[in-house]
Amino acid sequence: MNKKLILGLGLVIIVIIAMVLLWSQNMPQNSQKGSQSEVILENLNNPWALDFLPNGTMIFTQREGQVITWDGKSLEGVGNILVEAQGESGLLGLAVDPEFTKNKYIYVYYTDNNSNRISRFILNQKMENETILVDNIPSASIHDGGRLKFGPDGKLYATTGDASQRDLAQDVNSLAGKILRLNKNGSVPDDNPFNSYVWSYGHRNPQGITWGENGIMYASEHGQTQNDEINIIVKGGNFGWPFEEGENLTGKYKNPLIFYTNFTLAPSGMAFFQGDLYVAGLRGNQLRQIVLDESGQKVISESELFTNLGRIRDVVVYDGYLYISTNNMDGRGVPNVGDDKIIRIKVNG
Fold first, then answer.
1. What is the mean pLDDT of residues 246-252?
2. How far apart are CA 309 and CA 162, in angstroms?
3. What does the alpha-carbon distance between residue 95 and residue 98 come to, in Å, rounded to a whole number?
4. Which long-range contacts (CB under 8 A, 24 or more apart) does 96-99 make?
């Protein structure tokens, strides 16, 4: 064979191999080492909070006001709430009552024209009969908190941001910059520390809460210029904002379990699964896995998972799976094909 032809073919083969290697390195991966993932819903519009009904039907909010269910086959809009969706405000948190089969209650956190509020609805075919449980939570286009979850004690917990009025976080008479705790009927529990809804204070913008198997409560919090925190929440605790955060600690306030000073995670939803914490990272573009020791109060290691999906807003556990949602359509992300999405993850424990 002609030597020039052989040399030419060799160069072509080398170029092809290089292109394949480059493509494989840059190709988005839907799976992560130790897990498998599946996109179950796509082309959504800023899904903010996820939960599940007792029959396995998923229910989720979209920031512009929609509440949607998915039974594994079809989507159905069950609620359309009039909200003020500007910046970080709008329809945010959602929680299904632990006794849903008896009372059909669904709880949501949303921004109206004047404030944030927590309301309860009855869900039959549609959401109806709104009962406002907590009103006049300070709101703004940023720092609205918004997470709703039931704790192991059967109480409803909510995170609120400082609504860009940082001094309110230290005012126990204000509902801003707090974690709130309330009874299902909207009353104040007798054992709350300040005879109000306030459970803990000194928060800037907490957007995630979860509980470990030993009952420890964890919360994620957006810092100012990095300094994002993961905190262990205690009754009546003061977590320092706006006087201190991250590594600038004086000992006067509750110290974070973890703080991040070398990058911005912008943590949102949280879940506890198989002994580990999972945190949805917005600006961090990741699902962060935090491995804890048996006490649940010391970090052993951390990993960045699913870093190719963009902004991740929420993570929940249901029936042995993790479910995460992306928020690349919120004006701060770079949309991928099919965004926004809800993805189911099987973790190989």
1. 79
2. 29
3. 9
4. 96/51, 96/52, 96/53, 96/54, 96/59, 97/150, 97/184, 98/150, 98/154
The per-residue pLDDT for range 1-23, each reduced to its tens digit, is 444 444 444 444 443 444 433 33
Rounded to 5 degrees, φ, ψ at 265 are -85, -35
**pTM summary value:** 0.90
Q: Residue 5's pLDDT is what?
A: 41
